[in-house]
Amino acid sequence: MKTYLFTHPEKITQQQLEQELLPQLPEWRREQVLKFKFLSGQVLCAKAFLLLKDGLEKDFGISGPITFQYLEHSKPVLKEYPHIHFNLSHCKKGVLCVIDDKNEVGCDIEIIDRNISDALLSRCCNEAELSKIKGAADPSIEFIKLWTMKEAVLKAVGIGLVDDLPNVLTAELLSTMEVCTTVYDELGFVCSTCVSKTK
């Protein structure tokens, strides 16, 4: 699995978006980008596609046109290259992309929010996770780590967010996955990536 990260999207100006990013996009992706009302959303959408495009060319030798198709639960796949697995995620501080040519992948990037409510914790975490969060040096970071892990795993298996979030990270499911979580405290976000283990 190859991982690609773009940071500081706020540094991209409207002029850079129009003159540098949009011309690199196929028409269908430009339309998606321009559906976002604000510059920040447009930049994130454009950079997510360009991270994927650049990664495909650099590490997988794919330089032709690409088009997304969407499976159940909105999981994107490449119409022209069904053997390539990828996933994209973005938050207001960065964009994350993962690509693999053998196994399913998932990823998530989230800003570090220091205002995690008890209601959110109880809705998303089981007792063991709550105990780990409360015992952590920085409970908010510990929660975001768990959240991004859950979302990356669910995206890898192609089911998106589920109702039973407290019980997502079962030992059985994790035994089929390789999950990596990185805290970028100075940049204000946490990333998790996940790849299915080769059978």
Helix and strand topology:
Layout: E1 2-7, H1 14-21, H2 27-34, H3 39-60, E2 68-70, E3 76-78, E4 85-91, E5 94-100, E6 105-111, H4 118-124, H5 127-134, H6 139-157, H7 171-174, E7 177-184, E8 189-196
Antiparallel strand pairs: 1-5, 2-3, 4-5, 6-8, 7-8
Care to describe what's here?
The chain has 199 residues and is an alpha+beta fold. Helix content is 38%, strand content 25%. It has seven helices and eight strands. The strands form three sheets. It has a three-stranded antiparallel beta sheet, covered by helices on one side. It has a three-stranded antiparallel beta sheet with strand order 6-8-7. A two-stranded antiparallel sheet has the order 2-3. Helix 2 runs antiparallel to helix 3 (39-60) and helix 5 (127-134) runs antiparallel to helix 6 (139-157). The longest helix is centred in the first third of the chain and has 22 residues, at 39-60. The mean pLDDT is 93.
Question: What keywords describe this structure?
Answer:
alpha+beta; globular; single chain; 3-stranded antiparallel β-sheet; 199 residues
Secondary-structure content class:
alpha+beta
Biggest sheet character:
3 strands, antiparallel
Order of helix and strand elements from N to C terminus: EHHHEEEEEHHHHEE
Query: How large a portion of the residues is in β-strands, by DSSP E?
Result: 15-25%
Query: Rg to the nearest angstrom?
Result: 17 Å
Number of strands: 8
Low-confidence stretches: none
Which word captures the global form?
A: globular
Lateral arrangement of strands in the main beta sheet: 1-5-4
Mean of residue pLDDT? 93
Instruction: Count helical runs.
Output: 7
Terminal Cα span:
15 Å
Which range best describes the helical content: under 10%, 10-25%, 25-40%, 40-55%, 55-70% or over 70%?
Answer: 25-40%
